[in-house]
Amino acid sequence: MEHSTPWEFSDDRGRLAVAGDRPLRIVAYIQAGATLWDHGIRPVGLFGSQHDGGAPDPAKAGELPLADIPYLGSGHALHPDALLAVEPDLVVAVTYDGEQIYGLDPKTALELETHVPVAAVAVGPGRGLAEVRERFAALAGSLGKGEPLGAARELDAAEDVLRQATGGPVRPRVLALSPGDRERVHLARPGAWPDLRALCEHGVELLEPAAGSGANWSTVGWAEAAGMRPDIVLADARSNAARPERLRADEHWRALEAGARILPWNPEAPCSRRAHTGFFTLVADTVRDVLADR
Known about the structure:
InterPro entries: ABC_transptr_periplasmic_BD
Pfam families: Peripla_BP_2
Order of helices and strands: EEEHEEHEHEHHEEHEEHEHHEH
Protein name: ABC transporter substrate-binding protein
Radius of gyration: 20 Å
Domain Fe/B12 periplasmic-binding: 60-260
Structural class: alpha/beta
CATH topology of the largest domain: Rossmann fold
CATH architecture of the largest domain: 3-Layer(aba) Sandwich
């Protein structure tokens, strides 16, 4: 009689997720679910964060077929019973501090882990983009899946193109931000975001907001953002960020739009070679367009 080998994965909280067999039914935080999808894994359920509402945020969803995968709720409104109702073998989540499960109330997370193994991948400031990507790849590999064979080659090519675009004597000034409302904007601190640090490593000139109390963001007025005179703006595309059409009554946002290329930026993009290839390609193409217009 054959015996199955127990499955296990040491997550980024230092905890060992263990199951009697390789998990097949996976519930995931939407960013993690989009990443798993790029590795050939279809989640049986998705959940959001305290910033999300009763429907999934399409900006976070990557290539996920949202119409075909149940969305189980988000934030404080998410009850463990909703997650357990789809009978998961594993819950895949992310953590920013290496301790807490992002998107779940701590009590919900504790109760959940008494019923089902939970694996959390760190995506916060202490991790490089390639390291986050490889941790998700390791988790997917433990589940018997992986990215398409050409994905690594395509990412290498996109990184080369980005370095070539930024390798000249003049580089466009890039500002990453998340619109708050008509009065406030959150400027990203590049060192706090793995994808922004990766852009810097490939030669992109990311503008650094003034020192302050926020670890990830500096919250300022739109006049200060416009005064930084970026050539390219990476604007948070998630549903909780204010949309450009709501901001056009402000003269400083209009100045930003007039003077810079506005690109959608997802701070919670899928952590896969496919997604990163698309991001680097978009930035490289825009850098070249801005330089060509000078």
